[in-house]
Amino acid sequence: MARNFGLDTPRETRRSLRGNIDPETFGRLSERFARFLGTARFLVYMTAFVFSWVLWNTLAPKDIRFDTYPFIFLTLILSLQASYAAPLILLAQNRQADRDRIALNEDRAQNARSIADTEYLTRELASLRIALGDVATRDYMRNELGDLAKEIVEELRKPESDAK
């Protein structure tokens, strides 16, 4: 029986010896590790570890020492720690750069909205000023009524002969 391998047939899933690693979980762990490497606590722990290693391997009886003077095994351990720390720190920095890029884009969008709102309000304020230019203000009305009252008083003071 011939198998049909057309585009309408889904591919069978293959089993792999590699584990399925969630990149988000791994990224969070690397960030926590990188954050810990940048603390004074880590420096104190590493200093105490190296100091106790050197003390043990120089002052302990010769038959229970496990790493003699050039401390090759200590160098290997520190190199191994550094070889894992560097990529994890870079991964954490890349994730932080991605978050910063997203935040920057959101800030730009917010600034664009704010500028658009400000421009709209500026146009509205300008149109209100133009509209208020056509509206009589209280001082204007007071002056006009005062002038009209003066004219009426002057007309009333004129003799009646001038009125005819």
UniProtKB/TrEMBL annotation:
| Spans traversing the lipid bilayer | 36-56, 68-92
**Transmembrane in keyword set:** yes
> Which InterPro entries does this one have?
DUF1003
Q: Tell whether Cell inner membrane is among the UniProt keywords.
A: no
One matching Pfam family, short form? DUF1003
Keyword terms: Membrane, Transmembrane, Transmembrane helix
Q: What superkingdom heads the lineage?
A: Bacteria
The record's section on PANTHER family has:
INTEGRAL MEMBRANE PROTEIN-RELATED, MEMBRANE PROTEIN
Q: What is this protein called?
A: DUF1003 domain-containing protein
Please name the source species.
Candidatus Planktophila sulfonica
Q: What is the lineage of its organism?
A: Bacteria, Bacillati, Actinomycetota, Actinomycetes, Candidatus Nanopelagicales
